[in-house]
Design brief:
TIM Barrel, 8-stranded parallel barrel, two-stranded antiparallel sheet
Amino acid sequence: MSYLKQEIISLIDLTSLNNDDTRTEIDVLISKSLNALGAVAAICIYPEFVSYAKAKIKNKGDNIRLATVVNFPDAKKDLAHCIDLTEKALSEGADEIDVVIPYCDYLKTGSSEHACVLVRELKALCVNKTLKVIIESGELKDASLIEKASFDALENGADFIKTSTGKTPVGATLKAAEVMLNTIKTFSQNNPQSVVGFKASGGIRTYNDACQYLDLAEKICGREFISPSTFRFGVSGLLDNLLVDKISTLSGY
């Protein structure tokens, strides 16, 4: 199925998570967030830029959500550090928190009580703010581990489960996405009061890449799932590629 570029852009978490980011890069990101084809869902940046970016977005009058990362990217920070960073980011205006769970625990033992506690504690802080849990599916590899980490995240309060940090050799894959989306479907059937989403991140760069994930999500979870409230792309280069040919946007490809 083809999707309008405008629809894809509305699902994007426009991301800059480079170690050498400065306010200049954040300014560029914000300037791209509202473009010729509409607004992205959110921008995602390091915590040290949250206060600066929030003021910039407010001054522009945009309704772009602001996301930041915790325990990123190596998932080696302790619980107290993650709590402190989350509290600070929320107080400075973050709307969404993307946290990396200790995925190495799953590789070692097949489960992680630390991951469950981390998600539960951060969701308690987020309350009505969005908590996205990064399971690092490219490192877990095995479908049973991806399913277990996904279920643990959802069971403990995650609003979204997200494939990857984009900092490991393997980012998002359709195989991992299928496992995660099926886990969401099962969880949602068992918990009809819960609204949970999926975020594909890591290596999605073209219109065709994006459509493959959207087709898969629609097949498993239904057309209504294709909405910023339940589906996101965590990307940096995809937006630029979608903006290259503006003429074809009214009907897609």
